Amino acid sequence: MAKSNKPIVWGLFAAGGTVTAFLLPALIIITLLAALGYVPDLLAYENMQAFAAHWFGKLVLFFIVSLSLWHAAHRLRITLHDFGIRSDTLVASALYLVAALGTIAAIVYLLRI
Amino acid sequence: MNERQIQLEVLRYNPETDDEPRFQTYSVPCPDEWVVLDALNYVKDNLDTTLSYRWSCHMAVCGSCGMMINGEPTLSCKAFLRDYPDHIRVEPLAHFPIERDLVTVIDDFMGKLSRAKPYLIPKEEKAIEEGEYRQSPAELKRFKQYTLCINCMLCYAACPQYGLVPAFIGPAAITLAHRYNIDSRDGGRDQRQQVIATNEGVWECSFVGACSEVCPKHVDPAAALQQVKIASTVDWYKEHLMPWGGKS
Amino acid sequence: MSRKPYVREIPKGSWYLRQGRYMRYMGREVTSLFVGAYALFLLLALKRLSEGQAAYEAFLEGLSSPLGVLFQIITLLFVLYHTTSWFNLTPKAMPVQRGEEFLPGGVIVGAHYAGWVLLSLVVLFLAGVF
Predict the structure, then answer these.
(1) The domain containing residue C84 runs over which residues?
(2) Is the entire prediction scored with pTM above 0.90?
(3) Quick one: DSSP state of residue B28?
(4) CB-nearest partner of C33 from A39, A48, A76
(5) Cβ neighbours of A71 in B, within 8 Å
(6) I need a labelling partner for C28 at 20 to 30 A (CA). Which of B21, B185, C93, C96 fits?
(7) B214-243, pLDDT tens digit by residue?
(8) What is residue A5's DSSP assignment?
(9) What CATH number does domain A6-112 carry, 3.40.50.300, 3.40.50.2300, 1.20.1300.10, 3.40.50.2000?
């Protein structure tokens, strides 16, 4: 059988796993505090807008959102197979499509800021 | 000397008379220091000569006596009765067809093992007169752990992906390919990658890690497979982004 | 002698219920559901941010619903499990050989945790949490 093309998605999965492992807990703490009523300074509209308007802020936000989506898509693909849902091609296509659309959407929204 | 009366509940299957396997229980007087293999040998010698099972060295180096003991893939020569309750369930190694009683059909594993090309493929042919292939202690240490595999197939019994997808080449075969891939004397990595960098090769692995947990020789096949994934991913990018590399 | 090998079927949808180690594995894999959900949540936040101040501030207020708070808490718990399981597995995937010996796995894992704590504190500080 020919060599697999899974490295593409696996590379994204691994990169996303690393980024989410390091950054997501702190981010969730920030949004959790906001949900509890203690909105951290950065989340105020003026500051978020300024952060996202800057090219560096755009890059950071893009990579966090996109890599998280690709990490989740690939792992969920495998998890659904583990749960007994065997139509791998269908599941993979659906999940990667969501990750791709999410990636494009992130670019579109970020370019608008 | 203390003795315990052990109830050994063994899965029996006679292909000539049975349509399905069934359990049969034997009551075995066992000294403290015995292992499950000793109890099986007692059964065969004294209670039921028809019981069939594989074993050889009785010291966890030959890899013959792998079976499911209370649901866990174990070498029966390494399963000390003092670690088990009085009732012990013994079944053939999971994920392999049953030939007879505790004997499994291992052809699938043997085929995959050879496909992985587990032997040195030198970069260049060297005549004997040119001398030996030299290797530093550090180069040896790099792959030494992965040489310890005794082909006992416990990892295949533990791996849920092998159970769900029988085409999966599996932990031991891929680990052995990796052992040779990272051996400084070897030049056959490209050939092995054609086999293990496929969908039914390393990419069926989802890092459950059960293989490493059950390995009686602490080979850590899970680690080897993750390293193969990373190496294969780097390969993929090199081949697709820099196809002028020369090798294919 | 006639051969008639018997194949034992694996229950495709419930094999993981049979052993604790399989359940822990599924728990680890299921964290991806929450990572994905949070990523979509961030995407929504970006959308609202791009729509202007009113839309964004309405979004921020929506976080405080009981369901919103629950989502944050549950997601945090699952993502923490992702972080710890990811770090613990790193030395296996990327062993570091120094001279003859390998760096102990604990050193690599410890470095990850240390880096993670430091990075998190920096992010929280920059965000104005303290």
Answers:
(1) 19-95+102-126
(2) yes
(3) E
(4) A76
(5) none
(6) C96
(7) 999 999 999 999 999 999 999 999 998 888
(8) S
(9) 1.20.1300.10
